[in-house]
Each structure stands twice: as C-alpha cells, then as structure tokens.
C-alpha cells in the first residue's frame, strides 16, 4: 500500500470528523449525505476504506460527468431531469429561466438561458458556430473538462459579440482546419459546453431564444455543407453512453464500477494522478483501471468501500460549506473553475456547483451565515445593504439568488422571483443612493421593500452572489460584499 496516500486519507478523515457541518438534518429530497456509522475498522476493511475515500474524491467529477451525459440522451430525459433531451455532441436548449422545478444540478442561475452540450471529439473535431450578438448582451460558451476545469471561453468577454466558428479539438487529432475557423484545444476527448445567454428581464426571453436557435455544433467533416444544424449521430451517442449495471454487483459498489468505465474515456493524467491511480489496484481495479473486478473482493473490502463512498460524499458537503476565502461572511474561491490537483474541492464543486465558471468570467460568492454567525433561517428577516457606490463593479451584471439548503434548488415563492440584482425590473434605490435587499419568508408590507424582496423558505437556505464580468476589486481587497444582517 502507498503509505503517503494512506496518511493523507487518515489525516483528511480525522480533520473532517472534527468539523461540524451546519444544518445537516436530511430530508427525503436531500442532496447532502449524512456521515455514515464507521464503527471500528481494521485490516482489509480499513485499507479499502482509506483507499476508497481517495478514489471517490478523485474520481467523483468523471463519474458525475458520465451520469449527466447519459441522463440527457433518453426519450424521457426532460421529464426526469428538467433538461431538454440531447444526444452526445448536440446542444440541449433550455428555453426558460431556471425555476424551482429544476433539481438535477444544484445552484443553477436564474439570469441566463442555457445552451448545454456534452461532447466527445474522439473521432474528429466539432465546430462550434456562434451568431452575432447585440452589443449590450452578455453571453458565454464556457468549455469545461471532465474534472470541472474550465479550459476555454467563446463569448462577449473573450472573443467579442461577432459571429464566429471555433474548432474544438481533442488531444489526438492531426489535421488542418478550414480558413477562418479558430482552434481551441482540449486535453481530453470529453468535455462540456455550458452556454449562457443573458436575459435582460422577462420581456427579453424571446430575444435570447433567437440567439440559441442560431448556435451550431457541426462535425468537422460536414462543416460548410449546410447552414442548418447537422443531426446528431444517434448510433454513436447510444454507444457512447451505453451502460448496464451488473446484476450481481454488491450494494454500495456501483460508484467504483462506474469509475472504471469512465477511465475508458478519460484516463488518469500520467504524473498528476499517478498516486491515486496506482492505489486502485488494491481495491479491485484491473486492466489499466478500466475494469472493476468486484468478484475478487472480500466481504471486509466490500464493507470498507461502501462506507468510503458515503463518507466521501459527506466530506464533499462539508467542503462545499467551508472552503474558500471569507469576506464579510461570504466565501469565494479564486480556484473556482480551475481546481487542478485539489481533488476534494473539485469533487465538491462538481456536486454542488456543476459547471461553475472560472473567476475571471464570473465570481460566485457563497453565503450561509448572518452577521451574528448563525445559519440562515426562513423564520428570521434579513437585509443586505449596498451603500452608494458600493454595488459590485462588473462589466455585465450581478445578481443574488437563494436556494434550499437540502438540495440546492430555487425556493418556490408567490411572486416567482428566484434572483434579484441590477437587472431586476422595478428595483428601488433609496434617495441617498443606497440599495437594500430584503431576504425573508413573509411578504413585506412596505411597497419599496417588496420591490427589493427575495423570498425565503420557511427553513434553512443559502445564498449565492454572482458577479458577471467582475473587476479585480474583490481579489485585491478594494471591494467587499456587505454582510447579510438579521433584523428580526
């Protein structure tokens, strides 16, 4: 066994057990994982547990990526996931702003229409074609890999608002591109495109949809032959996502089976991932880690791996609530969207902030406690006051959103408001130039307060402050978000 790896796991487990994650009472629809009963472990069970914790934290993003890709393809995809059906290498266009009915991915935004695609360029590059976008509209096509790291942007900040064609190229392709097609290289053959098209109020949704309709994903061999969208290769898509759980797979081991399958498409990095990848042989991984020989495992090892999976999920939840730079009880992480070898953070990011952007494109600030240091509770009333000139300095716009603590979905409310910010129609600025937002469950009686009201649930919740096109004020300490204060 690799002693360094085991020592790392042991230290991580001890540190996590010392933490107390706030609001850990689970509900039926909870995405949070309560800590499992570990008991006393020794021998093969303890070894499998230690190595399993590392395997889950390291491999969670790839397994989650494959699950998401597969979940988009069947005929009932939209019914089950809230996302439009889309095959591999095909855009799924979300035609309305996200609301509380969407629960597949935690912490979505309510500011943009999404255009999302899960991509496999192992056969040939794909050409992403974008239309011209009106001068005052924010949009971005974010490219993020299987680990959640952002490796490219096409959009208003990086490439401008003009029309363009961009070849998305995998690591093994050799060839020439047509004139005028710009090249974007991916370290992997598999990645996602998370397109976001800004919506300037409810009356602007139709205009954003018109931009969606002009997006194209075209295999390089078919590029330039038609202005219409080339239909997806259904046979390739079905083969790419094919999956069947073995009938005799012991309970608690499906994650490891999926992890081996994912490595057929996304192998470990030779140097960066060597320690974790080499350790997998001790827990049943074979054939360059692309097969999981669960039949070779003892009952003790199966028990250790099962506990490891549940425990690792719990550690991700703790990390999501505690990691980052603290500023006035808000937290953000400069590594967001580019996590590298921080395996725990990238796993937590995949689970709770899937597809989150790099900080130069958008900053996400996580808020979970008030000015008294207490977790947010819908039984209280809160205010968030920006003094004159202290609203976020952004090139595009900013917003504040609220989510159920249990599953990261939007909070259903009578005025159908799921975010509030500088693009919110009717928001009221005070005579002194300040802006106060009201966060509470009960509807305010004062009309000015109601105009600036973000409705809360009856129970626990968390907030997310998004800055689109941020300046460097947060990073260099010249700007900070105001503390959310409890008023009643």
Question: Could you describe the 3D structure shown?
Answer:
There is one protein chain. With 488 residues, this protein is α+β, with helices and mostly antiparallel strands. It is built from 11 helices and 21 strands. The radius of gyration is 23 Å and the shape is globular. The model is unreliable at 1-28 (pLDDT under 50).
Which descriptors would you attach to this protein?
488 residues; alpha+beta; Immunoglobulin-like; 3 domains; five-stranded antiparallel β-sheet; 21 strands; 22% strand; disordered N terminus
In short:
With 488 residues, the chain is of the alpha+beta class. The chain folds into three domains: 3-69 and 240-321, no CATH class; 89-231, Sandwich (Immunoglobulin-like), CATH 2.60.40.1610; 332-486, Jelly Rolls (Sandwich). It has helices at residues 3-18, 43-71, 77-81, 205-212, 234-241, 254-262, 274-279, 299-322, 343-352, 447-451, 473-476; strands at residues 92-93, 112-120, 126-130, 139-145, 150-155, 164-169, 181-185, 190-198, 216-219, 285-286, 291-292, 325-327, 330-332, 362-367, 382-386, 394-404, 419-421, 435-440, 453-455, 461-470, 485-486.
What's the CATH topology name of the largest domain? Jelly Rolls
Mean pLDDT: 92
Query: Strand portion, in percent?
Result: 15-25%
Strand order of the largest sheet: 12-13-14-20-16-17
Work out the helicity level. 25-40%
Helix-and-strand structural type: alpha+beta
Largest sheet properties:
6 strands, antiparallel
CATH class of the largest domain: Mainly Beta
Number of helices: 11
Mind telling me which CATH architecture of the largest domain this is? Sandwich
Tell the overall outline: globular
Q: How many E strands? A: 21
The unreliable regions are: 1-28
The count of domains is: 3
Question: Terminal Cα separation, in Å?
Answer: 56 Å
How much is the radius of gyration in Å?
A: 23 Å
